[in-house]
Each structure stands twice: as C-alpha cells, then as structure tokens.
Amino acid sequence: MNKVRWGLLSTANINRALIPALRASRRGELVGVASRDAGKAAAYAQQWQISHAFGSYEAMLDSGLVDAVYISLPNHLHAEWSVYALRRGVHVLCEKPLAITLAQIEEMMAASRESGCVLAEAFMYRHHPQTKIVGDWVRAGHLGEISLVRGSFDFAIRSRHNIRLTPQWGGGCLWDVGVYPLSFAQFIMGEPPLSVAGSQWVGSSGVDETFVGQMRYTGDRLAQIAAAFRTPFYTVAEVIGTEGRLHLNRPFTQVHDDRRLLFFSKDGEPQEIAVPDKMLYLGEVEDMHAAILDGAPPYLTLDESRHHVRTVLALYESARQNQIVTLAQQV
Ligand SMILES: NC(=O)c1ccc[n+]([C@@H]2O[C@H](COP(=O)([O-])OP(=O)(O)OC[C@H]3O[C@@H](n4cnc5c(N)ncnc54)[C@H](OP(=O)(O)O)[C@@H]3O)[C@@H](O)[C@H]2O)c1
Fold this sequence. Notes:
Elements lengths: L3 E6 L5 H10 L3 E7 L3 H11 L3 E3 L2 H5 L6 E4 L6 H10 L3 E5 L6 H14 L3 E4 L6 H12 L5 E9 L18 H17 L5 E8 L5 E10 L3 E8 L5 E8 L2 E5 L12 E5 L5 E2 L9 H13 L7 H20 L3 E2 L5
Parallel strand pairs: 1-2, 1-4, 2-3, 4-5, 5-6, 7-10
Antiparallel strand pairs: 7-11, 8-9, 8-15, 9-10, 11-12, 12-13, 13-14
Helix pairs in contact: 4-5, 5-9, 7-9
The structure holds NADP nicotinamide-adenine-dinucleotide phosphate.
C-alpha cells in the first residue's frame, strides 16, 4: 500500500473540513462515503465527487474498498463504529471525544491493539504548528515554571435539533468544546489532573450549556477552562509561568487572519511569535498516514485520549455533586 484509501462514515457537517485536507495530502485518497440513507450517500458522493457511495455504515466497512475511515458520528456512536471498523481491519480517525465512558474507550483501545490497526482521536489543533510551538516554548523553559493554563471555547447553538443537545448522545458543551481547553491543559502540563472542580448550567435541553472547570496538577499547577453553547463564538488560551505568559486568541479553530500568538515577558513589551501557515486539518491526516504506512506511533496517544474522557467524567461528577473530585477516586 502506498496510498491510504479513505471513507467518510456519515455525511456530517464536519466532513467539509476534513475533505480538503484529505485531498491536499499526498498519501491518501478519498474513495467512499457511507450514510444510513442510500439516497443521501449518493447525493453526497456526487456533490463532493467521491467515487463510491454506501447506503449503510456496514456496507462501506465490509466492502474491502477502504483502508481507513473518518468517524464523524454523534459522540455516543464513536465507540460502536470504531470497534466495528477496527475488527474488520480498517484504521480509524475518530472525532473528539473518542468515547463518552471509560468502558467504551477501553474496548476501543483493545480493538486497536488486537487488530493492529491505528485508532486516533481527531484533535486537529494538536497537530497544528501553533500548538507545537507553544509546547516547545513551555518545555524549553521560556515561561519559567508553569503555574496556570486558562482556556475557553464558546459558540451559540441556534437549532434545538443539534446532536449536541441530546443528553444520552454525549451532548453538552463540555463534551463538545470544553474538551479543547481541557486537552490543551493536559498537553501543557504533560499529565492529567490530580483533582477537578466543575460547575455547570443545564438548559431546558437537559445538557450543560455553560460549563466551567478547574483542575489541579502535580507541583501546585492549576488550569481553568470554560465552554458554552449560549454565547457568541469566542476562543482563547493562556499559558502562564513565572517568567511570562503566552496568549493565543485562536488556539483551537481554523486559523484566521487575526490569529495572534503573543509572548508577554515579565517586564518586556509583548512579542509576536511567528506561526507557519498550515491547513488546520492536514496534520491529523498526515499523522494517520505516517502511522498506517510507516508504522510511526500516532502523535496523540490513546492514553492521552483516555485521560481526556476520565477528566470530563470527573468534571461532570464534580458539577453534579458540587464537590472536588480526585481522579484516583473517579474510575
Ligand atoms: N474537530 C472538529 O473541528 C469538529 C467540529 C465539529 C464537530 N466535530 C465532531 O464531529 C462529530 C459530528 O459533528 P457534526 O456537527 O458534524 O454532526 P452532524 O452534522 O449532526 O452529523 C452527524 C452525522 O451522524 C450521522 N448519524 C448517525 N446516527 C445519527 C443520529 N441518531 N442522529 C443524527 N445523526 C446521526 C448522520 O449521518 P448519516 O445520516 O449520513 O448517516 C449525521 O450526518 C461530533 O463528534 C463532533 O464532536 C468535530
């Protein structure tokens, strides 16, 4: 195999971000799309010029025509279809959050191990040069000792029919966008938190539509995160250390012209750090190709993804009980 043949598992909105990245990559080709509805799959294939349309997810995964699949289903279906694909020898790039229970992610990890197929969480921003530069600055000690990571991701949901508003489907703003600053904090700290405190506002939908969380790490390092479905689009992240801080106004989303990565030293003027331009979704695709074709270890490990799930579950438990939850207690 010198090119990975990709299939899209569903006709989700987010596919439109991945398709240009698949087409920009030299080592992959998009060959199929599957939908629960054959007519929808056919129309989608025509619209996006994809050669094969499948009227069920099984049909594509059993066809032998795809080597890898991009799973862009509602959160509660990520585990079921990842496991199905892996057991048929199909590599999986699955949307975030990889799973919504620990039992699910453990089953997914086992299926990947047993099949020898790659499974990776599609956290595109982790592969972008901006995130890697921030990680390099932190590890090089330019910020001194890290004391605090802050991050937010808000946007307003207009339609009551959005998959994010169904509690049993893994709905809620923490699962949907809170996982960005949560995973960013874990990346900067190099480990999951020891304990968490969460607070939420649950709307008439039954899911959290505003969530704030605090996390404590070894060495008395802290993180604060916020997420919302009720307020206009807003993202920010800050990494704060004894020698200065980094400020990112577009830490997680498609890089816009107004993107700024700024360093504030403890006594100097703000300094702008140059970030190379790269298509936001290309890095995760290239990483899959390296893992599948070269046997390279995926950049974002499954242990990291497991910690994301664990931390989200602990934050929800904390918000429900209105008390601090330690990660050791929360299984
Ligand atoms: N990384 C990112 O930048 C990013 C951005 C947005 C979303 N996401 C993630 O991507 C996933 C999909 O989000 P989205 O907003 O693109 O979703 P969406 O547009 O609502 O699409 C979800 C798709 O899942 C399929 N599906 C299967 N069972 C379903 C059910 N019971 N109800 C509704 N749809 C069902 C449908 O495809 P068929 O009808 O064709 O079968 C549907 O098109 C989520 O996990 C989300 O967290 C990631």
